[in-house]
User: Fold these one by one.
Assistant:
Number 1:
Amino acid sequence: MDKGYEKERFETLKIKASIAKAFRKFAKSISKSQSIALLLMLEFFEENGISPAETFGPRMETLENRITTLIKKRMNGMIAILKDIEKNQTKPTAAMLLKLFEQTEPDKKALIVEKKYADENKEVRFREKKNFKSNDD
């Protein structure tokens, strides 16, 4: 019995005897029931977007062209994703890390001196004490 299809009823298809015989032989060769063999064939055609009426030519050129087109589309998508990651994540992160690890000395700024003290004479003056007692006295 086919797994997942145990409770479904059987339907009859009208096909020619020679085609039925060939189909039964094909189903046995892939070790599947006739229902599952037909289901697999239908899924194959739908997933790959090919028609049984199409000819592939001597080297399956049509299928090769479709696969090539799909690969190009996927590659273009991956390139777009990588560029976006580089633009929005890698470059800003690298710039931040570079700034963190830069060993530049901070700029030495001139001291800001209040204007009234800047103009004064910078000489140091000492006052003499008048009431100084010396040891000699």
Note: The chain is about 55% helix and 0% strand.
Number 2:
Amino acid sequence: MDLTILIELVQKFGYFSMFLFNWLLLFGLPIPNEVAASFTGVLTEIKDFNPFYAFISAYLGLVSATFFAYTIGRLLGPRLINRLNRTRLNKPIDAFSKYLERRGNIAIGLSFFLPGFRWAMPYVVGANQFPLKLFLKYSILPSFIWMMIYFQLGRTFPYAYKLMLDNLQLFLISLSLLIVSIFVIRYLIIQWKLKKRTS
């Protein structure tokens, strides 16, 4: 992982850089979220940055990026969903929308701890016109906990955090794939049972 871009941002913008590199991830900054959050914690140990201000800057970057993604999903997503509803994907989309209505709090909260989900969930939730109040309610605390975990990891292990993150990433990606597999299998079983009843 090349952190040159983060170091350059820190040298130019100080605390604001911590906001920036947690916000720019939304636009494809080629660094995992976990690295950006942990690196903020590292900076408080190896440079003269106040941990409180550093954390707040990073957290505001994450929250504003998440809100921005939700807004894009809300504005542009319905058109895409309408198009997809005319394809074979209409049943999975409908099933996910219903799941979001019933278990939105769990889906949104859990997404922050799973690579890939964290990036995609705000767009999907916005596209499904999930109420903003509820989205904020279910995302503020999990995003705070997520940021605190990685920020503290960087502070506690400033010289070994990258190695720890690599191992943690592997575990979280495996967990994400397992969760997706469970949802797909469950969906296929439900569809199979429905077909059996109608035939």
Note: The helical segments are 4-13, 15-23, 33-46, 51-84, 90-111, 117-127, 132-156, 161-198.
Number 3:
Amino acid sequence: MKLLFELTLDGSISVPALSKKLGINASVLYSRIKRLMKKKLIKKFTIEIDDSLLGIGVKASVGINRDPKLKDSIHKKFIDITEVVSISEVTGRFDIIIQVYAKNLEALHSVVIEKIGKIEGIQNTETFVELQKTDKNPVYLIK
């Protein structure tokens, strides 16, 4: 768990540096990391991007109700919308919640009204604009 915790903080840390930090032999760490990847507990190593530097000024969640008969075609259309970054089928008052990244509120409005709202089978939408976000580590990674 300590290894996973450290890798979530900095996936680019070198094995020798990690070895010193954890007090574990580097060759043992290499084999543990390979084993975690083989077991698919570690899916991939990635980077974190500052979206604002790419011009993304607004992030929103959009709750959507849809015609159940058109589920697959709606999902495919969401995949084709560049601004849609994730699609989740959910329980509760919505059928789907999608995450949308846009340049500004005007661009978000355009995506929701012109791209999402005009998809056949979309019954209604409700948009929640992100004002502030605080990420925290999952409970199993708390030191």
Note: The chain is about 35% helix and 20% strand.
